[in-house]
Amino acid sequence: MSVPALTRPLPVYRAADLLAAYLPGSYYFSSTRGTLLADGVDAVVGGAPGNRATAAAAALAEVATVGGAAGPVVIGALGFRPEAPATLVVPSVVRRAGAPVDAPVPDAPARRWSIRPRPEPGCYTDAVRRALALIDGGELSKVVLARGLELAADGPVSVPALLTRLVRADPAAHAFAIDVSAPGDSAPRTLVGASPELLVSRRGDQVVANPLAGSLPRCADDAENRRRVAALLASEKERAEHAHTAAGVADVLGRFCVNLHVPAEPSVIGTPTMWHLSTKITGTLAAPAAPTSSALGLAEALHPTPAVCGVPPAAARDAIAALEPADRGYYAGLVGWTDISGDGEWVVTIRSAEVSERIVRLHAGAGIVSGSDPDRELDETTAKFQTLLRALGEGTRS
User: Fold this and answer.
1) pLDDT tens across 292-322, in order?
2) Which residue among 120, 139, 142, 150 is the active-site one?
3) Average pLDDT of the chain to the nearest whole number
């Protein structure tokens, strides 16, 4: 007698095994909640922007009915703008393990790179000044402006090796590698990164969001780091920027949740390269069975938060389109997974890059509010590039 697919015991793997097994074309996601590696495609999830959670629920139900992968999930990424590319699939094989653990970080290979800023640094600071004029004129309260780098290596970039260095450098980050190849691409394309920012996580009827906004670079000196953490907590400008983001996230989750808890004061979390003001928001879903209350449904409702867009959102999106010369693509979108029960984890697609053979494209942004200094915002983007540049062996260059 066969055992139904959804009741078969799942094999037990180690996080390190799944990381070592990743190959381009697979789908990888890890965090402190666990590690997921998926392969193959049982279904491609379509749906219009804002309605993909319903399409995902239908795809998962259909795959489960025909006996697809045990513990099926939808995994993938959505771009920043509603019309941006989207990659959402139900994989054929899903393997899970615990969270990554500390391990030595492999050295990046020595190689020659050419780096092209998109735009040039001076053009970015000019855009910040133009954004400040919009803020002073009352059209915006906040807008997040990003700039890009395009790196060309002297040979193909190994995505598995890059992913391994990102996971080992910060096992607590939300690391991912998602195949985002599209028709017309001359070579396979992978979205890879290690995001510090949890957009939303769901377990049963419990949800967690952890918006980040307000940042300072981390350094090698412990005493100076303590000073920077204190300065971040005391900064009126950084706290104002963070308050916009936390309030926006709480407002959206309040439409879905009861007993929503929003801490009165932010805390500070650190990555290997940055310090961020952080607010951990928790709540209980009022209607957990609804597709719109799935992890993906909540993520769609939250996206884009003021952490990557601005306030008010529509005006900020228009300003971003006018002031940023390069399209963001998947940067500042969302990446993650949702299972058939609606549980899952979605993060903001920052500290990320798109890799295609020897070309690597990455972005970093900074929140512009009244009182922002264009040169300091440029420095902030430079610091945020370091997560990927270090993993590529090009730290300090920007």
Assistant:
1) 999 999 999 999 999 999 999 999 999 999 9
2) 142
3) 93
Mark whether 345 is an active-site residue. no
Q: Provide the pairing of β-strand 86-90 with 27-31.
A: unpaired
Residue 104 has pLDDT above 50, yes or no: yes
Task: Say which CATH architecture domain 12-104+119-391 belongs to.
Answer: 4-Layer Sandwich (3.60)
* 265 part of the active site: no
Predicted pLDDT at 11 = 58
Q: How far, rounded to the nearest angstrom, does the alpha carbon of residue 391 sit from its chain's CA centroid?
A: 17
Is 190 in contact with 160 (CB distance < 8 Å)? Answer: no
The single residue of 83, 139, 150, 197 carrying the catalytic annotation is 197
- What's the token pair of residue 48? 């219009």
Percent of the chain with pLDDT over 90: 88
Evaluate if residue 182 carries a pLDDT over 50: yes
